[in-house]
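FAQ: What does a multi-protein file look like?

Like this. Sequence, then tokens, then the next protein.
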Amino acid sequence: MQTVRTPEGAVLCARCSVAATPRTRLRGLLGRTLAPDEGLLIRPTNAIHMFFMAYPIDVVFLDRDSRVLRVVEALAPWRAAACRRARSVLELPAGACARVGVGPDDVLTFTPSERPA
């Protein structure tokens, strides 16, 4: 698990899982719901689809330096999104990007999440 922060230090995602194997990338969020502080980083990829999903999500396309290239807010089920230069995609609950003001050219910081005591 990782914590994702904006350049200003605001927490965008307190519990971010990473999908980096073919199997975990393929599964993505299928059969899961996202808590308000949860997210999924999929890498490497530059596109996602929302087939068989039941709820909208915010999608953040990142380059190799974790710079935001594109934000798609509230991507609806049965839709797809892509960004040619992206190297990873951060999937978040709908409204998360607007809540903290994430936009293009922001550089996100990923740090290991602290384990609860």
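And here is the next protein:
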Amino acid sequence: PTDHPYRNVQTGAGILIFWNDFCNRGKIANFVCKYKRHCTMRLTVELDRMRIRAFHGLLPQEKQVGNIFEVSIEAWFSPSVSSMEREDIDSTVNYADMADIANQIMSEPCELLETVAIKLMKAIRDRWDFLEGGKVKITKVTPPIPVPMKGASVKIEW
């Protein structure tokens, strides 16, 4: 139903929880929502527009002076309700660790933002093998382009 109370609940620290209306996929046994049917929970951990100084780009000036980049990451999975109730950090994505991975990847200069996005995606997937999907968006805040804009971005989804 469109009036499902848990359709899109946002909690603190950038964690989004989505309750899907797909019945009994077997990921969460015996969980019954308000509408008296089995639901699958999808939890998304998100880091939104981290600002990181880095030295990515094709031009010599970009490699010497650097630029400010905004990095946004989403990673989603279907946790068990019991693991979330136990507050087991090993059964979720630690957003502090995700930020550390982003800082590490961003500190390695590349010519293309596409390369940086793929490296970041691979590092996140390698760290949390239970992920079902995610997104990485990297924005160069002041690209060397003589046109007013908020930034130039690449985004990868898996």
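Q: Is there any per-entry metadata?
A: Some entries carry free-text notes. For the entry above: The helical segments are 60-65, 81-85, 95-106, 113-127.
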